[in-house]
Design a protein that fits this description.
heterodimer, A: about 160 residues, two-stranded antiparallel sheet, 2 strands, about 65% helix, B: about 150 residues, elongated
Chain lengths: ~160, ~150
Protein backbone atom coordinates (compact mmCIF):
# COMPACT_ATOMS: atom_id res chain seq x y z
CA UNK A 1 0.00 0.00 0.00
CA UNK A 2 1.31 3.43 -0.84
CA UNK A 3 2.10 5.80 1.99
CA UNK A 4 -0.57 8.27 0.82
CA UNK A 5 -3.27 5.58 0.70
CA UNK A 6 -2.26 4.30 4.15
CA UNK A 7 -2.52 7.83 5.51
CA UNK A 8 -5.96 8.31 3.94
CA UNK A 9 -7.21 5.08 5.51
CA UNK A 10 -5.97 6.06 8.99
CA UNK A 11 -7.45 9.55 8.70
CA UNK A 12 -10.81 8.11 7.57
CA UNK A 13 -10.86 5.63 10.45
CA UNK A 14 -9.83 8.28 13.00
CA UNK A 15 -12.54 10.62 11.66
CA UNK A 16 -15.22 7.91 11.86
CA UNK A 17 -14.18 7.10 15.44
CA UNK A 18 -14.24 10.80 16.37
CA UNK A 19 -17.72 11.26 14.91
CA UNK A 20 -18.95 8.22 16.84
CA UNK A 21 -17.38 9.59 20.04
CA UNK A 22 -19.20 12.90 19.54
CA UNK A 23 -22.50 11.03 19.16
CA UNK A 24 -21.73 8.85 22.19
CA UNK A 25 -20.94 11.86 24.40
CA UNK A 26 -24.25 13.44 23.36
CA UNK A 27 -26.07 10.18 24.03
CA UNK A 28 -24.60 9.75 27.50
CA UNK A 29 -25.82 13.25 28.33
CA UNK A 30 -29.35 12.12 27.44
CA UNK A 31 -29.09 8.68 29.07
CA UNK A 32 -27.48 9.97 32.27
CA UNK A 33 -30.50 12.18 32.97
CA UNK A 34 -32.71 9.07 33.20
CA UNK A 35 -30.40 7.07 35.46
CA UNK A 36 -29.81 7.30 39.18
CA UNK A 37 -27.41 6.17 41.89
CA UNK A 38 -24.61 3.86 40.82
CA UNK A 39 -25.85 3.75 37.24
CA UNK A 40 -25.75 7.51 36.92
CA UNK A 41 -22.20 7.44 38.28
CA UNK A 42 -21.31 4.80 35.71
CA UNK A 43 -22.80 6.97 32.94
CA UNK A 44 -20.82 9.95 34.25
CA UNK A 45 -17.58 7.93 34.26
CA UNK A 46 -18.29 6.75 30.70
CA UNK A 47 -19.03 10.34 29.61
CA UNK A 48 -15.63 11.46 31.00
CA UNK A 49 -13.80 8.55 29.35
CA UNK A 50 -15.38 9.30 25.98
CA UNK A 51 -14.56 13.00 26.24
CA UNK A 52 -10.93 12.18 26.96
CA UNK A 53 -10.81 9.81 24.01
CA UNK A 54 -12.45 12.38 21.77
CA UNK A 55 -9.65 14.82 22.67
CA UNK A 56 -7.02 12.18 21.86
CA UNK A 57 -8.62 11.51 18.46
CA UNK A 58 -8.75 15.25 17.68
CA UNK A 59 -5.04 15.52 18.50
CA UNK A 60 -4.19 12.51 16.31
CA UNK A 61 -6.08 14.01 13.35
CA UNK A 62 -4.46 17.43 13.78
CA UNK A 63 -1.02 15.73 14.05
CA UNK A 64 -1.69 14.28 10.60
CA UNK A 65 -2.71 17.65 9.18
CA UNK A 66 -6.31 16.47 8.83
CA UNK A 67 -9.39 18.41 9.94
CA UNK A 68 -11.10 17.19 13.12
CA UNK A 69 -14.88 17.46 12.66
CA UNK A 70 -16.79 19.20 15.45
CA UNK A 71 -19.79 17.65 17.17
CA UNK A 72 -23.23 18.21 15.68
CA UNK A 73 -25.54 20.39 17.78
CA UNK A 74 -27.90 17.45 18.29
CA UNK A 75 -28.24 13.79 17.27
CA UNK A 76 -31.27 11.68 16.36
CA UNK A 77 -31.66 8.87 18.89
CA UNK A 78 -32.65 5.42 17.65
CA UNK A 79 -35.51 5.26 20.18
CA UNK A 80 -37.02 7.66 22.72
CA UNK A 81 -35.20 7.71 26.07
CA UNK A 82 -37.72 8.18 28.88
CA UNK A 83 -36.69 5.86 31.70
CA UNK A 84 -33.79 3.77 33.03
CA UNK A 85 -34.29 0.74 30.72
CA UNK A 86 -34.38 2.89 27.55
CA UNK A 87 -31.36 4.85 28.85
CA UNK A 88 -29.40 1.59 29.40
CA UNK A 89 -30.40 0.38 25.94
CA UNK A 90 -29.14 3.62 24.36
CA UNK A 91 -25.83 3.44 26.24
CA UNK A 92 -25.32 -0.19 25.20
CA UNK A 93 -26.12 0.67 21.58
CA UNK A 94 -23.73 3.63 21.55
CA UNK A 95 -20.86 1.54 22.93
CA UNK A 96 -21.64 -1.18 20.42
CA UNK A 97 -21.56 1.25 17.49
CA UNK A 98 -18.32 2.75 18.70
CA UNK A 99 -16.76 -0.71 19.01
CA UNK A 100 -17.12 -1.16 15.23
CA UNK A 101 -15.31 2.13 14.57
CA UNK A 102 -12.39 1.10 16.80
CA UNK A 103 -12.17 -2.34 15.17
CA UNK A 104 -11.87 -0.55 11.81
CA UNK A 105 -9.17 1.71 13.23
CA UNK A 106 -7.17 -1.34 14.37
CA UNK A 107 -7.18 -2.65 10.80
CA UNK A 108 -6.40 0.75 9.28
CA UNK A 109 -3.16 1.48 11.11
CA UNK A 110 0.23 -0.10 11.66
CA UNK A 111 1.21 2.68 14.07
CA UNK A 112 1.67 0.94 17.41
CA UNK A 113 0.36 3.80 19.54
CA UNK A 114 -2.76 4.33 17.43
CA UNK A 115 -3.44 0.62 17.31
CA UNK A 116 -3.00 0.34 21.08
CA UNK A 117 -5.48 3.19 21.58
CA UNK A 118 -7.95 1.47 19.24
CA UNK A 119 -7.74 -2.00 20.76
CA UNK A 120 -7.98 -0.78 24.36
CA UNK A 121 -10.90 1.49 23.41
CA UNK A 122 -12.59 -1.49 21.74
CA UNK A 123 -12.17 -3.50 24.95
CA UNK A 124 -13.55 -0.64 27.01
CA UNK A 125 -16.61 -0.32 24.72
CA UNK A 126 -17.28 -4.07 24.96
CA UNK A 127 -17.03 -4.03 28.76
CA UNK A 128 -19.31 -0.99 29.09
CA UNK A 129 -21.87 -2.35 26.62
CA UNK A 130 -21.92 -5.62 28.60
CA UNK A 131 -22.41 -3.71 31.86
CA UNK A 132 -25.35 -1.87 30.26
CA UNK A 133 -26.89 -5.24 29.50
CA UNK A 134 -25.83 -5.94 25.89
CA UNK A 135 -24.74 -9.38 24.78
CA UNK A 136 -21.66 -8.54 22.71
CA UNK A 137 -21.24 -12.07 21.36
CA UNK A 138 -17.93 -13.57 20.31
CA UNK A 139 -16.80 -10.71 18.03
CA UNK A 140 -17.42 -7.23 19.45
CA UNK A 141 -16.97 -4.56 16.80
CA UNK A 142 -17.01 -6.94 13.86
CA UNK A 143 -20.71 -7.75 13.55
CA UNK A 144 -22.89 -4.66 13.53
CA UNK A 145 -21.90 -1.93 11.10
CA UNK A 146 -24.46 0.87 11.22
CA UNK A 147 -23.91 3.92 13.41
CA UNK A 148 -26.01 3.98 16.56
CA UNK A 149 -27.06 7.61 16.31
CA UNK A 150 -26.89 10.10 13.49
CA UNK A 151 -26.61 13.89 13.59
CA UNK A 152 -29.88 15.75 13.15
CA UNK A 153 -27.89 18.66 11.75
CA UNK A 154 -24.40 18.64 10.31
CA UNK A 155 -21.58 20.05 12.44
CA UNK A 156 -20.65 23.64 11.74
CA UNK B 1 31.20 10.23 -22.44
CA UNK B 2 30.97 7.07 -20.32
CA UNK B 3 32.68 4.10 -21.80
CA UNK B 4 30.72 1.01 -22.79
CA UNK B 5 32.35 -0.82 -19.91
CA UNK B 6 31.29 1.85 -17.41
CA UNK B 7 27.70 1.65 -18.62
CA UNK B 8 27.73 -2.14 -18.36
CA UNK B 9 29.20 -2.03 -14.87
CA UNK B 10 26.62 0.52 -13.81
CA UNK B 11 23.78 -1.58 -15.27
CA UNK B 12 25.09 -4.64 -13.49
CA UNK B 13 25.31 -2.76 -10.21
CA UNK B 14 21.68 -1.63 -10.55
CA UNK B 15 20.54 -5.20 -11.29
CA UNK B 16 22.42 -6.68 -8.33
CA UNK B 17 21.20 -3.88 -6.09
CA UNK B 18 17.63 -4.47 -7.27
CA UNK B 19 17.88 -8.19 -6.52
CA UNK B 20 19.27 -7.49 -3.11
CA UNK B 21 16.38 -5.08 -2.43
CA UNK B 22 13.94 -7.70 -3.72
CA UNK B 23 15.34 -10.41 -1.48
CA UNK B 24 15.27 -8.03 1.47
CA UNK B 25 11.58 -7.35 0.78
CA UNK B 26 10.88 -11.07 0.53
CA UNK B 27 12.70 -11.66 3.81
CA UNK B 28 10.66 -8.88 5.44
CA UNK B 29 7.44 -10.46 4.18
CA UNK B 30 8.53 -13.89 5.42
CA UNK B 31 9.35 -12.52 8.85
CA UNK B 32 5.93 -10.81 9.02
CA UNK B 33 4.25 -14.06 8.01
CA UNK B 34 6.25 -15.98 10.63
CA UNK B 35 5.24 -13.47 13.28
CA UNK B 36 1.56 -13.71 12.31
CA UNK B 37 1.75 -17.51 12.39
CA UNK B 38 3.23 -17.36 15.91
CA UNK B 39 0.50 -14.94 17.00
CA UNK B 40 -2.19 -17.26 15.60
CA UNK B 41 -0.66 -20.31 17.29
CA UNK B 42 -0.49 -18.50 20.63
CA UNK B 43 -4.13 -17.41 20.34
CA UNK B 44 -5.31 -20.91 19.38
CA UNK B 45 -3.46 -22.39 22.39
CA UNK B 46 -5.01 -19.80 24.74
CA UNK B 47 -8.51 -20.38 23.36
CA UNK B 48 -8.14 -24.14 23.75
CA UNK B 49 -7.03 -23.65 27.37
CA UNK B 50 -10.09 -21.46 27.99
CA UNK B 51 -12.40 -24.08 26.45
CA UNK B 52 -10.87 -26.76 28.67
CA UNK B 53 -11.31 -24.55 31.74
CA UNK B 54 -14.97 -23.85 30.92
CA UNK B 55 -15.63 -27.54 30.22
CA UNK B 56 -14.10 -28.45 33.58
CA UNK B 57 -16.26 -25.88 35.40
CA UNK B 58 -19.41 -26.85 33.48
CA UNK B 59 -18.83 -30.54 34.24
CA UNK B 60 -18.67 -29.95 37.99
CA UNK B 61 -20.74 -26.84 38.72
CA UNK B 62 -24.31 -25.77 38.03
CA UNK B 63 -24.73 -23.08 35.39
CA UNK B 64 -28.06 -21.37 36.02
CA UNK B 65 -29.31 -19.60 32.92
CA UNK B 66 -26.57 -21.17 30.80
CA UNK B 67 -24.41 -18.08 31.23
CA UNK B 68 -21.08 -19.90 31.37
CA UNK B 69 -22.05 -22.17 28.49
CA UNK B 70 -22.60 -19.06 26.34
CA UNK B 71 -19.16 -17.73 27.24
CA UNK B 72 -17.69 -21.12 26.33
CA UNK B 73 -19.38 -20.91 22.92
CA UNK B 74 -17.68 -17.56 22.25
CA UNK B 75 -14.28 -19.24 22.68
CA UNK B 76 -15.35 -22.03 20.35
CA UNK B 77 -16.29 -19.32 17.81
CA UNK B 78 -12.85 -17.72 18.23
CA UNK B 79 -11.18 -21.03 17.45
CA UNK B 80 -13.38 -21.51 14.40
CA UNK B 81 -12.52 -18.00 13.16
CA UNK B 82 -8.83 -18.86 13.50
CA UNK B 83 -9.39 -21.97 11.41
CA UNK B 84 -8.72 -24.31 14.35
CA UNK B 85 -10.70 -27.48 15.03
CA UNK B 86 -13.04 -27.19 18.00
CA UNK B 87 -13.44 -30.30 20.09
CA UNK B 88 -15.11 -30.91 23.40
CA UNK B 89 -12.42 -31.49 26.01
CA UNK B 90 -12.34 -35.28 26.49
CA UNK B 91 -11.54 -35.35 30.19
CA UNK B 92 -12.36 -32.19 32.10
CA UNK B 93 -10.78 -33.73 35.22
CA UNK B 94 -11.30 -32.57 38.76
CA UNK B 95 -11.86 -28.87 39.26
CA UNK B 96 -10.13 -28.08 42.51
CA UNK B 97 -9.81 -24.30 42.24
CA UNK B 98 -12.97 -22.23 42.87
CA UNK B 99 -14.40 -21.77 39.38
CA UNK B 100 -15.16 -18.05 39.23
CA UNK B 101 -11.77 -16.64 40.31
CA UNK B 102 -10.08 -19.21 38.08
CA UNK B 103 -12.12 -18.25 34.99
CA UNK B 104 -11.77 -14.56 35.81
CA UNK B 105 -7.98 -14.72 35.92
CA UNK B 106 -7.85 -16.79 32.70
CA UNK B 107 -10.11 -14.33 30.85
CA UNK B 108 -8.16 -11.33 32.13
CA UNK B 109 -4.84 -12.80 31.08
CA UNK B 110 -6.24 -13.77 27.67
CA UNK B 111 -7.62 -10.24 27.17
CA UNK B 112 -4.18 -8.73 27.94
CA UNK B 113 -2.27 -11.26 25.80
CA UNK B 114 -4.54 -10.67 22.79
CA UNK B 115 -3.80 -6.92 23.00
CA UNK B 116 -0.08 -7.76 22.82
CA UNK B 117 -0.71 -10.10 19.89
CA UNK B 118 -2.90 -7.55 18.12
CA UNK B 119 -0.04 -5.04 18.31
CA UNK B 120 2.39 -7.64 16.91
CA UNK B 121 0.11 -8.77 14.06
CA UNK B 122 1.00 -7.61 10.57
CA UNK B 123 -2.05 -8.72 8.57
CA UNK B 124 -4.76 -6.06 9.16
CA UNK B 125 -7.60 -8.64 9.19
CA UNK B 126 -5.76 -10.73 11.78
CA UNK B 127 -5.18 -7.59 13.88
CA UNK B 128 -8.90 -6.74 13.74
CA UNK B 129 -9.87 -10.27 14.71
CA UNK B 130 -7.44 -10.31 17.65
CA UNK B 131 -8.68 -6.89 18.81
CA UNK B 132 -12.24 -8.21 18.76
CA UNK B 133 -11.22 -11.38 20.63
CA UNK B 134 -9.41 -9.19 23.19
CA UNK B 135 -12.60 -7.13 23.62
CA UNK B 136 -14.76 -10.25 23.95
CA UNK B 137 -12.49 -11.56 26.70
CA UNK B 138 -12.47 -8.24 28.55
CA UNK B 139 -16.30 -8.34 28.44
CA UNK B 140 -16.24 -11.98 29.62
CA UNK B 141 -14.11 -10.97 32.60
CA UNK B 142 -16.72 -8.32 33.48
CA UNK B 143 -19.52 -10.90 33.12
CA UNK B 144 -17.73 -13.49 35.28
CA UNK B 145 -16.94 -10.86 37.90
CA UNK B 146 -20.58 -9.71 38.01
CA UNK B 147 -21.81 -13.31 38.26
CA UNK B 148 -19.39 -14.01 41.11
CA UNK B 149 -20.52 -10.87 42.96
CA UNK B 150 -24.17 -11.88 42.56
CA UNK B 151 -23.35 -15.38 43.79
CA UNK B 152 -21.47 -14.24 46.88
CA UNK B 153 -23.77 -11.28 47.50
CA UNK B 154 -20.79 -8.92 47.46
Amino acid sequence: MSRALARTRVVEALTAALEAEHATIYGYGVAGAQLSGGEQERARAAYDTHRARRDTLVALLLDRGAPAPAAAPAYALPAPVRDAPTARALAARLENGLAARYADLVGATRNRDVRRLAVTALQDCAVRATQWGADMGAFPGLARRSPAVTPTLPAR
Amino acid sequence: MPTRRAVLVAALAVTVGGCRLGSREAAGRRSREDRDAAVRARTVAAERALLTAYDAVLATHPDPGGRLARLREDHAAHLAALGAVVSHSPSPGGMSAPPFPHLLSLERRAAADRVTDCLAASDPDLARLLASVAACEAAHAATVLAADRRRTGA
